[in-house]
Design goal:
The chain is built from eleven helices and no strands. By secondary structure, it is mainly α.
């Protein structure tokens, strides 16, 4: 797969010839589908981010906000700390100075989609009187930041291993508790 070549060699060192050989086809055939390495990598990022959004970002208006945020937080951090997500983010950050368009596309089809969907969910929760968040866009960004915590950076820097599922669940529960302490509605 092209992804394997990008992960093994890095974006800058990956070539269409190496990718074609790994796929078992010719470089000419690969160029018929993707006019450039940038287009191939972009297609890969769009595909993976789209898959992520399908299941992870489904937010029910029927369940209590804390329950919805707990589920979202656990799915989000599970994905964010996955090998694919960490390695892709490492590549994008490494190339951002040389190919800012790739970074922009990644942000637009990945993080921005998640922020927008959570923002819209929090707006609906605000309208239902379930939370008190004057700036739901900021609240969405804060929640995702709380979930990311220090773990994501440590994995990006390759200075820590992925923690256990129990540790991640506990950290998401703390993030939800902090979020609800700030934005949750006090019960009479």
């Amino acid at each position: 797969m092209a992804r394997d070549v990008f992960f093994l060699k890095g974006y800058a060192e990956a070539s269409m010839s190496t990718i074609a050989a790994r796929l078992g086809g010719s470089k000419a055939t690969l160029y018929n589908y993707f006019p450039s390495k940038e287009a191939l990598f972009e297609a890969h990022v769009r595909d993976q981010c789209g898959r992520f959004a399908q299941g992870v970002l489904d937010l029910s208006d029927e369940a209590p906000v804390a329950e919805v945020l707990t589920g979202l937080g656990e799915r989000y951090i599970d994905h964010l700390l996955s090998d694919w997500a960490v390695r892709t983010c490492q590549i994008i950050v490494a190339e951002a100075g040389r190919t800012p368009d790739l970074a922009r596309v990644f942000f637009e089809v990945g993080p921005a989609v998640g922020l927008d969907r959570l923002h819209r969910y929090l707006e609906r929760a605000q309208a239902r009187g379930q939370i008190d968040a004057p700036d739901t866009a900021l609240a969405a960004a804060q929640f995702l930041s709380l979930c990311r915590g220090h773990r994501h950076l440590m994995l990006l820097l390759n200075i820590a291993a992925r923690p256990s599922a129990e540790t991640l669940s506990s950290e998401v529960a703390s993030a939800v508790k902090l979020f609800m302490a700030r934005y949750g509605m006090a019960r009479p």
